[in-house]
Design the sequence.
């Protein structure tokens, strides 16, 4: 599995993280396939989440929830600092309307909610911005700029294949508080030389190759990030049972009365959980108040 490559300038004015995320994206589609449009957006979202999470601290996570009026409806990607990630889409078979070529139209107008777990706090931090373009990378960049008030560059790319993803990857570059105007000007002057991220991925670039122009022109030092990426949905029968209990006794009563099995599919991996009526009855019984 791939690892994220992280760097920070020696003066602390800029940090950057890059990754080739092809393998973890393909894990998401080994469970359930999707349309080329949805595979592209989902792969970009999980790549962005992994990069953002890598700049947090151990045992912390970030969730990206894109919701829009477009045919895809929503995409949710979550990643942890340790490289574990998962992703799902509202409509995995969605396609652009005929004549539309802009990928961002898959989500359309809507919102991006970013949920970050914070050290020593029970409640996560939530921030919301309107979708700028629906292009995932541009919307993440917009959120980072709005939340931190400093410039950043988010470049994400994914190329779908007949099954899964051919290649996926990207990077996030962030200027840190206290950066100089000289650093900003130099960064802007390099943009015409950066080249196509998609083309780099197609030609077999490694993570560090995606950001070579920056590594060559700034005094970066690498920060070790030893975790291998892995797709982990975290679903289990126990979680399914807890979700059913949250529905309340009346809903469980209706399910039991219907005398049909409850069939639940995990949104992230597609695994099917089938709970028979006696199992549902046992869950319902656990909600009954004990006699005193």
Sequence:
């Amino acid at each position: 599995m791939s690892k994220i490559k992280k760097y920070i300038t020696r003066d602390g004015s800029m940090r950057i993280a890059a990754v080739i995320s092809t393998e973890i994206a393909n894990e998401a589609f080994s469970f359930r396939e999707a349309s080329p449009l949805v595979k592209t957006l989902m792969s970009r979202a999980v790549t962005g989440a992994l990069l953002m999470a890598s700049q947090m601290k151990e045992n912390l996570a970030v969730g990206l929830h894109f919701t829009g009026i477009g045919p895809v409806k929503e995409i949710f990607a979550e990643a942890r600092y340790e490289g574990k990630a998962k992703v799902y889409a509202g409509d995995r078979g969605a396609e652009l309307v005929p004549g539309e070529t802009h990928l961002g139209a898959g989500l359309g107008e809507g919102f991006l909610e970013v949920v970050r777990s914070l050290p020593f706090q029970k409640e996560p931090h939530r921030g919301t911005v309107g979708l700028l373009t629906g292009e995932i990378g541009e919307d993440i960049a917009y959120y980072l700029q709005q939340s931190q008030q400093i410039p950043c560059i988010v470049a994400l790319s994914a190329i779908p294949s007949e099954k899964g993803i051919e290649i996926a990857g990207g990077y996030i570059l962030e200027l840190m508080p206290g950066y100089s105007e000289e650093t900003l000007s130099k960064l802007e002057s390099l943009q015409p030389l950066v080249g196509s991220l998609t083309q780099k991925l197609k030609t077999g670039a490694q993570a560090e190759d995606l950001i070579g122009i920056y590594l060559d022109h700034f005094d970066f030092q690498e920060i070790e990030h030893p975790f291998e990426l892995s797709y982990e949905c975290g679903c289990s029968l126990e979680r399914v049972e807890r979700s059913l209990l949250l529905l309340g006794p009346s809903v469980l009563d209706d399910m039991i009365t219907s005398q049909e099995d409850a069939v639940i599919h995990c949104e992230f991996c597609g695994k099917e959980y089938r709970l028979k009526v006696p199992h549902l009855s046992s869950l319902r019984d656990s909600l009954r108040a004990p006699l005193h």
